[in-house]
Structure formats: structure tokens, C-alpha cells
């Protein structure tokens, strides 16, 4: 996101009469919240928190594969079944996605 140009005084201060722009409202949703929402959708749960355990929420192998496929489609990161099962929480899966993004 580009910042708005600012008027600078010769002494180095900002011009208080220059138009000020507020940060946009409703910024991007954090990745962990997106993953939690995905789990909630596929596990038919109204709320999934970042530290909730996949298996404790009723997750099984078929749902795990669905999540792995959605992550690959939506985020361009291919998680192994082993890594997904070891991660077990939306927060840890989000971390795997971030690492996968940074390695490409």
C-alpha cells in the first residue's frame, strides 16, 4: 500500500495543514483467522479458535484431505498429510503456509 504524500517544512517537520489520510477500515483478515474459518466450514463448527485441535473438533482423514486441498488451491502451498496432522491447530497450519509461501 502506498502512503499519501506529505508536505515537509524546511525545518524538517510535517505541514499540519496538509491533508491527512486515515488507515483504511477493515484491513486484511489475518491468515490464522482465514484458516480457522475454513476449518469451521469443513468441520461444521460455528467457531474454531487458533489453538483448537483438529482431532478434538472431530476432524478425520477425509476432512484433513479436504483442508489440504483447499490450502493448495487458495494459498498455493502444498502441505503433506504428515505435516498437517502434526500441526493439528489452525495457528500451526497458518505457520506452515507462511513458511511455504516464503520458500517459493
Automatic annotation (TrEMBL):
Cross-referenced Pfam families: PP-binding
DNA repair listed as a keyword: no
SUPFAM superfamilies in UniProt: ACP-like
Domain Carrier as annotated: residue spans: 26-101
Keywords, alphabetical: Phosphopantetheine, Phosphoprotein
One GO CC annotation: cytosol
GO molecular function: phosphopantetheine binding
InterPro entries per the UniProt record, alphabetical: ACP-like_sf, PKS_PP-bd, PP-bd_ACP, Ppantetheine_attach_site
GO terms, biological process: amino acid activation for nonribosomal peptide biosynthetic process; antibiotic biosynthetic process; secondary metabolite biosynthetic process
Residue ranges of coiled coil: none
Region (Disordered): 1-30
PANTHER family: FATTY ACID SYNTHASE (PTHR45527:SF1), NONRIBOSOMAL PEPTIDE SYNTHETASE (PTHR45527)
Protein name: Carrier domain-containing protein
Taxonomic path: Bacteria, Bacillati, Actinomycetota, Actinomycetes, Kitasatosporales
Amino acid at each position: 500500500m502506498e502512503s499519501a504524500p506529505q508536505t515537509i517544512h524546511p525545518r524538517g517537520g510535517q505541514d499540519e495543514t496538509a491533508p491527512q489520510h486515515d488507515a483504511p477500515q477493515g484491513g486484511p483478515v489475518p491468515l490464522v483467522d482465514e484458516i480457522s474459518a475454513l476449518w469451521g466450514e469443513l468441520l461444521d463448527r460455528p467457531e474454531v479458535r487458533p489453538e483448537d485441535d483438529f482431532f478434538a473438533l472431530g476432524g478425520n482423514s477425509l476432512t484433513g484431505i479436504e483442508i489440504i486441498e483447499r490450502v493448495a488451491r487458495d494459498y498455493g502451498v502444498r502441505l503433506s498429510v504428515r505435516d498437517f496432522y502434526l500441526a493439528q491447530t489452525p495457528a500451526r497450519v497458518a505457520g506452515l503456509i507462511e513458511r511455504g509461501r516464503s520458500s517459493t
